[in-house]
Write a structure and sequence with these properties.
4 helices, three-stranded mixed sheet, alpha+beta, 200 residues
């Protein structure tokens, strides 16, 4: 009498550490991840799990989403932590996004031309990425506006995509405003934001 191996039931997501470090993942692979998989970004085909944000980070992101949503015109939507497919093998997840509202609600990601503002809230583990890597990637993809929100104290740095290439030869962001009390802008839409309203 031979015993049959027990059928393997689906369990919690367990990444393959070797394959995870190999390039080759694409957007369709992210869409097939199970519901219990951690939040990830895709950087040149390599999966990168995102660190869990702390309460201060989430407080700022949530309030910023609400305040931007209150002021955004009807043709724009505001959301949090949705992926932006900068390429088929390169996907970032900004903390807050303002996007064109005609995007179907069942979509799991946005395309760069659908995003009018990407916002990153800087945490200790993301300083270099949020200050250097992400703005360069968002600018290269043509996302019109980028905000970087620093913590302790809370300060918003608002950028707009320049019309001409910068010193690097690529399109770059130019600083519109840096505010720790009141931020007033006309791009990507008229905004008046008291910084104290998003501070933890």
């Amino acid at each position: 009498m031979t015993s049959e191996p027990a059928a393997r039931l689906p369990g919690p997501w367990r990444p393959d550490p070797v394959r995870q470090r190999q390039a080759g993942y694409r957007l369709e692979d992210l869409l097939r991840l199970p519901s219990d998989a951690p939040r990830v970004e895709l950087l040149d085909g390599v999966l990168r799990a995102l660190p869990a944000p702390d309460l201060g980070h989430q407080h700022i992101s949530g309030l910023l989403r609400r305040l931007l949503g209150d002021q955004a015109p009807g043709h724009l939507g505001v959301t949090q932590a949705v992926g932006v497919a900068l390429d088929t093998d390169h996907i970032r997840r900004p903390d807050v996004l303002v996007y064109r509202a005609e995007v179907p609600a069942e979509r799991h990601f946005l395309l760069p031309h659908e995003v009018v503002l990407a916002v990153e809230v800087v945490s200790p583990g993301t300083r270099r990425t949020d200050r250097f890597s992400k703005p360069a990637e968002y600018a290269a993809a043509g996302i019109a506006c980028y905000w970087r929100v620093e913590q302790n104290p809370v300060r918003v740095h608002a950028y707009r995509l320049a019309d001409r290439p910068g010193r690097s030869g690529n399109r770059e962001y130019e600083l519109l405003a840096k505010a720790d009390e009141l931020l007033e802008l006309v791009d990507p839409f008229p905004i008046k934001l008291a910084i104290g309203e998003i501070a933890p």
